[in-house]
Amino acid sequence: MTFQELNLIVPIQKALAEEGYTQPTPIQEQAIPIALQGKDVLGCAQTGTGKTAAFAIPILQLLHGTKAGKPNHHISSLILTPTRELALQIGESFDAYGKYTGIRNQVIFGGVGQHQQTQGLKRGTDVLIATPGRLLDLIDQGFIDLRNIEIFVLDEADRMLDMGFINDVKKLLRKLPAKKQTLFFSATMPKDIQELANTILHNPTKVAVTPVSSTVEIIAQSVYYVEKPDKKDLLRHILSDSSIASALVFTRTKHGANKVEKDLNAVGIRSEAIHGNKSQNARQAALSNFKSGKTRVLVATDIAARGIDVDQLSHVINFELPNVPETYVHRIGRTGRAGATGVAISFCDTEERAFLKDINKLIAKQIPIVDEHPFKVKIDGKAAAALAAVEAATHKPAPPSSARNKDRKSYWQKRRSGGGGNKGGNNANRPPRANS
Ligand code: AMP
Fold first, then answer.
1. Is the pTM of this model over 0.85?
2. 47 lines ligand 1 (CB under 6 A)
3. What CATH number is given to the structural domain containing 339?
4. DSSP conformation class of 277
5. Cα end-to-end span (Å), the chain
6. Is 208 strand, coil or helix?
7. How distant is the alpha carbon of residue 105 from its chain centre?
């Protein structure tokens, strides 16, 4: 299928061609025609599947149809998304796909001064992309009026809930007009998300793709057994391979991220860390240095890395394994995007072997172990006993073991076994987006 066959207007087709997009991704193929008909969509898809364009393109086309030639810009579409990074990326996508439509967008999020954002709002915008807290704040201050919303997008609904935004979301829903089109996206559809969707969607059409298993399959994964104190040397050793142009390194804690950053810079490997304690400006600067290739290594905690979309990221390195196995899949999904191949390397110390077991179980395969490396674990009596304890332990559910996680697990399992409506299959022919 081509974008032309989706009946897109020429200004959008031209912009997509400039982005190097030759054909729609499966989620785009499914969602765009429905959204263009003005219908509600319940989309099960995560970042990396092209879901941003799946909602941005129809919004741009619909608003272009109603607003063409009108000089006033009032907020007609609201995109609610959980993180600042995602908000910025969605804004960039609207800029790119909408550059010949005359449709304006404005991004607002917390953690930075509001002046620039309110100035932008005063100039007028058609599409507002927002995180919940700052949006409520600016509504309360009278800068934003949502009464004219025609199209509403709730993006990454499951993360919205995970991050504790449910009350803010509910508050915002009450401020939207009853008559509107709603596009609802979530990577997973556990019961609480399904219930939320039921309350806000009218007769929705369901669309779904399975990014995770395909992502996992095109990424070359490996694991290094290493003791905790040797991890930093192993990281340097791996990064001494100059063919690794850029790497996203994950740690479990903010403190850990700072330490890794310091260690790498001390040996001349340019790196920056992003985590929740850094100001929004520092995070953005670090991200753009990484994207432009100024820094070779970005060290990140999971929250800070949510939804980061770095073109042509070849390597993800798990300096520490996550204790929630789904997080592993999200992390390695930062590479191998839009059909590109990727490499995911994980360090695993003795204490983390139980996490590795959970991950192998979730992805339904054993991540290959790299045996030959200078920091191989020497199995002395103590290590052998620790390993035996891990082996003997019955499978421990990864904390937190909420009902929600159980739902998720069955979701992933269903996906792996081919359940759910993935129509599209292989995205391998899609070129990565050109650096913007
Ligand atoms: P998203 O899931 O929206 O975060 O998109 C993931 C990546 O895929 C981004 O880098 C997009 O620029 C890219 N992308 C989205 N749609 C297409 C397409 N039709 N062809 C090629 N790349 C795309």
1. no
2. yes
3. 3.40.50.300
4. T
5. 25
6. strand
7. 20
